[in-house]
Structures are given as C-alpha cells and as structure tokens.
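User: Good morning. I'm curious how cytidine-5'-monophosphate would be positioned relative to this chain. Could you predict the structure with it bound?
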Amino acid sequence: MGKDVIVACDFSSAQAVYGFLDKFQGEKKPFVKIGMELYYAEGPQIVRQIKARGHKIFLDLKLHDIPNTVKKAMAVLSGLDVDICNLHAAGTTAMMQAALEGLTRPDGTRPLLIAVTQLTSTDQQSMERDLLIHEPMDQVVLHYAETAKAAGLDGVVCSPLEAGKVHERCGAGFLTVTPGVRFAEGDKGDQKRVMTPAQAKQAGSDYIVVGRPITAAADPVAAYVRCVEEFVD
Ligand code: C5P
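Assistant: Good morning! Here's the predicted structure, ligand included:
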C-alpha cells in the first residue's frame, strides 16, 4: 500500500457514518478509520458493511491485555478482513507477538498491525507522575517503536513530527501513521502539535489520519480531495 489519507470516521451511529460516506459518490472511496465510538455503538457489522461498500479499513481499537486474550481478539478481527489494526506497545513484546499470531490467517495473510507508542494526550509530566517513566518523551516513543519493530509489527501511530526519526531508527519500510493533521488556515481543535498534509508528506508520513478537517468541513468531499492533493499527488 502506498501513501494515503485515512479519514477518521468518529461518528456514533451507522446512520451518521453512511450520511457522511454517501457524499463520496463518484470519488475515490476513502480509506476509513473506525474507532472505539463507532465500533462499540454498532459492533462488527459496521466493519463488514463499510468493507462491503469498497472502503479500506483501519480498525483503531488499541488492544492492551494479556497475550492470550489479545491473540484471540486479534483472530476475530482478522476474520473481519480489515486492512490495518492496532494495539498498545505498552502491552510488551510478548503481547505484540501473540497479537501477530492471532492475526495471521491459515493461508499466511494478515492485516497490517501497528502500535500506539505514547498517546499524544500523554505529556512528559503525566508520563513521569502517573507511569513512573522518566526518560524524555521522544526517547520513549522511539524505544517503543523499536520494540514494536523487533516484535515483527509493521509500524506505529505517531505524530508527523516524529515520523522522520522513526524512519531513521526503524527503517523506511516501517510505517508511520500520523494523526494531528490540519490545513494551514484550519482550527486546531484539541490537537496541539499539528502539521499540514503537505508538511506531513515532507516529514515522511506514510498515512495521515484526518478527522474533523474533513468530517466537519462545509464541503467534506472537497476537503478530502484537497488532503489527497497535498499529501499523495
Ligand atoms: O479530528 P482529528 O483530525 O483530530 O482526528 C484525529 C483522529 O486520530 C481521532 O480519531 C483520534 O482519536 C486519532 N488519534 C489521535 N492521536 C493519537 C492517536 C489517535 O488524534 N495519538
């Protein structure tokens, strides 16, 4: 898979997400991210239905549990035929390896598996105070990325600001999937460290995850096309 724009479909019902996706008639079908909100509201059926409409899917459920539980859960997700799924690198190497085993189908194929390093909502202070991790944040993120790579994963979710360093440390083929993208003149909302799609391209992101700049735009299709033009073309 080459560079692409993944649209974060953070809606709370099937009706709302179809109302959004129906606008893309005649356009390239966007790569869609389904997160916890939509998945917990509508269940696995929403994944099957969006897949049946011809969209690629990043199922963003961020698994984190004991290895055996994650392995079994991943086997179920693999049956949903998603393209990318994810977990927390904090679950350790054993959990990441078990996840890969669970995800791999009898014919050897599997969805891509990427790891969340530290959430972008976690800052240095809360990491030190609550998690008792005292290394600098960028070192922690790079260490988690290396651990994920060593476990056999395909990439990480990170800020576009970290994409270059992750590639340096883990290789150009190790995927960086980066939220925190805004148009130059756009509202940042609750995202703090942001880049434009063009800057993310420059920084080496493989996939940008874009939510509100597309879903809340007056013309979502135009906003999506602009993202693709800036990031992919
Ligand atoms: O609307 P916005 O473009 O901020 O959406 C970004 C999406 O990426 C949301 O679904 C958010 O949950 C997700 N995400 C993020 N930062 C992370 C991991 C995921 O913004 N570190």
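The chain has one domain: 4-231. Residues 8, 10, 35, 119-120, 157, 179-180, 189, 191, 209-213 surround cytidine-5'-monophosphate (CB under 6 Å).
Let me know if you'd like a different ligand tried.
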